[in-house]
Amino acid sequence: MNLHDLVRWNPDALNDFENELGRCAARVEGVREAVTTQSDCGGRWRGDTHESAASAFVAYATAIADQRDSIRRVQECAILVAPALRMLHAELDATRTAAAASGFVVTDDGTVQPMSGVSAAPADRAGIQARVAALLARATELDDEAAATLSRELDEHHPAGQEQWLWPDGTRTKPAHLPATPEPGTPADAVAQWWRALDERDRTALLAGRPGAIGALDGIPAGARDAANRALLDVERRRLEEVAARLRLELEGNLFGGLFTAADAGLEQTDKKLAALDALDEVLARDDRYLLSLDLSGREAMAAVAVGNVDHAEHVAVFVPGAGSTLQGGLGGYDTQVSALRDEAHRHLGDTSGPGSSVAAVTWLDYQAPQWGWGLAYTERSPVSDLAAQIAAPRLSGFLDGLAASRDGDPDVTVVGHSYGALVAGLALRQGADADAAVFLGAPGIGTDDVRELGLPVGAAFLVEARRDAFADVGTFSGDPSFLDGLTHLPSGEGTSATGEPLTAITGHSSYLQPGSTSSYQVAAVVAGAAGRSAA
């Protein structure tokens, strides 16, 4: 196994393979059931000849069941290898990032070479080369174990019911039970401590057996959450497609449609969630994305997607969109904006800090954002009520706490709330969320009339209000923040960057993170810890 092989070893392809094997096993099981059913001949054939035929049918059914179980064991191999491979890929990305920060590049053959024209320390090179060697050793072990498992299925007979699982330590027996997982809402520090105490075998088993639970826990490392939530994506898509098909069949056979059954409303909601999964698939296909949360339990699908690894970045921006936001309607655009914000923050760091600095940016839509239209008729869905924000704030607070708990060393975290998202961010900060700075964009309120209640360092709370943004002046939630002491006002008109590049003005309520704008440039400066380098 060399580095080129590891990069080409695609966990998404393994997931597709696992899904296809599951469908194959289901089809084989259907054949076994049919053979078993036909062995009785509907009670119309009796006698010695029938008994002999029935015995043959039983033997056939047993052989088919063996084939079904063999397919399932290969499927289990793929299920277990895929998340372990994702973690190896995440560690490789982190190693390459660390190498670049130290002036080295990791080549496709696994050697560590100095970058042209960059002064680099030999000790750093040796350390990075050791990390690469250890990574390749683990990848080789994983590859060998997978190959051995597949070979045994070709060469050996495994009796039905003798399930075998592949573990990183070479053990192949299925555990009696999976380790208990922390309850939802467990503090991120406690979750992180629990995860660190698990061995690699238990972690892999949990990723394969309980992806929904692991992906939702704040305090789990980003690579593991991403692997779990991506696995959950496939499960949820199959489930929703089955629900949609059943509802369509029900509607087709009902003269009154969904008038008396609400099937039409159920189908509409299911189709929206499937569209949300489509949007997630499109964004996750972009480079360096991590699916940090996925929750389909509510009216709208919820998720958090990061650009960059939050477990290795020194600076992390968490963007909270506002009312009317949905995954299917806005995630692609939000992801594009936060990616550009991350790039701008990197440029600020290039001006103000040495090598080693890094930035990650998260689109956090892991709450039921209130909706306009019919949403106004329901308190928990209304943009003019703070109830949705009160429900969302603990979720955001737990997520922000988890950014530090899941890693060594606290990152510098900036929460960026737009519109109603500013209220969510403000309430989370009032509850003690772990953040170093906050930027409120077009905020109709931040949930307090005293900036000190946010718990931020003095001078770390910022406000941007664009010209002709009517929503920013309504002051619905604890007053108009424009008049609060302790908020630093950042410009949004035309300007010039520190390097002389022109910056565009924004107007209205929806363009605060528009790439190339003064407001986006200023937010990036806060994210990079370079606030105060104001545009001309």
From TrEMBL:
It comes from the Bacteria. Keywords: Hydrolase. GO terms for molecular function: hydrolase activity. The keyword Hydrolase applies. Pfam families: Abhydrolase_8. InterPro entries: AB_hydrolase_fold, DUF1023. The keyword ATP-binding does not apply. Residues 300-477 form the DUF1023 domain. Residues 154-187 are annotated as: Disordered. This is Alpha/beta hydrolase of uncharacterized function (DUF1023).
